Amino acid sequence: MSNGLTDGDDQLLRLISRGDESAFLAFYRRYQGPVYRFAVQMSGQVEIAEEVTQDVFMVVLGGAAKYDSKRGSVAAYLYGIARNFVLRRLEQERPYLTALDDPESAYTDVADRQDTLVELTRNERIESLRRAVLALPPAYREVVVLCDLHELDYAEASAALDCAIGTIRSRLHRARALLSEKMRAEERCAV
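Given the sequence above, the corresponding structure tokens read:
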């Protein structure tokens, strides 16, 4: 899926603003997965991600006409809405139990396990990285999730977070450095 505006998105949003249910359903099917994954990666909680996803699409349903393609892509628009809902929920839920405490609740592996040891090591590293990402301060976590996990470019992340591109670059640089430090520290503890 492209993170930018596709030809059909502009038309779908116009139809949604006129109350077209089939257009909303098509738009929802296209963007529900990325919005949900963003919310899980930002909050670490399946319950929050489900509620945020629902809230984002309720905003779209009630305000599709407010989308302005000049301000950014549809993905940036949706991630910006989701970000605001996630941050509000995290403020309400502090401290919270993350999905990392029960990895099966948010992430499941269905891959064939031919080499169990290699797969376990890989899974441990992924879980370590998830914990490290969730431990980042929200300003750093959101740029990592948007730029590294959702592959938005700096301009799209800037539009989603409503800040300057230079801010995105500096936060991403600092976030990657923090993640690197956390992962090295964890590897030293494991040895």
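The first helix runs from residue 7 to 17. Try to locate this feature in the token string yourself.
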